[in-house]
Amino acid sequence: QVQLVESGGGLVQAGGSLRLSCAASGSIFSIGAMGWYRQAPGKQRELVAAITSSSSGDSTNYADSVKGRFAISRDNAKNTVYLQMNSLKPEDTAVYYCNGDLLLLSGSYYNYWGQGTQVTVSS
Questions:
Q1: How many CA atoms within 13 Å lie on the side-chain side of 93?
Q2: Angle 55-24-5 (CA atoms, 0-180°, nearest 5)?
Q3: Which one, out of 1, 26, 51, 105, has a CA that is 20 to 30 A from the CA of 14?
Q4: CB 117 within 8 A of CB 12
């Protein structure tokens, strides 16, 4: 029953903030590279933010449309990744999906998607 469980979505006014959480549950050893995607009705799913770990520390990447407004972070002890969304715009309205590589107890990595959480920004 390995899965990514998301929370924090909802309705917010333009200019407001939301914090999304994505926790890996089940029998896993750790989380690897993680990311947030979003998909608006009639549009393709797009990468919003990604975070990886290396010997030099975590690195992050953001879509140009969210740079300076969104921040991705991770808590490896909790097997959780977050997306802090500030200065939200109506254009940010979408279903947000968590995605990542999970290291299972078997010793292998597998990629998983969360179920998605709705973020609606009113004007």
A1: 12
A2: 140
A3: 51
A4: no
Residues 6+ apart with CB under 8 A from 66: 48, 49, 85, 92
Which of helix, strand or coil describes residue 47? strand
Which pLDDT tens digit goes with each residue over 42-100? Answer: 999 999 999 997 667 789 999 999 999 999 999 999 999 999 999 999 999 999 999 99
Cα torsion for 73, 121, 16, 22, to the nearest 10°? -20
Q: What is the pLDDT of residues 47-63, one digit of tens each?
A: 999 999 766 778 999 99
With beta carbons less than 8 A apart as the criterion, state whether 75 and 8 touch: no
Strands 70-75 and 80-85: antiparallel
Tokens 């990744």, located at residue: 81
- Six token digits for residue 14: 């333009």
Burial code of 34-56, b = ≥16 C-beta within 10 A, e = fewer? Answer: bbbbbeeeeeeeeebbbbeeeee
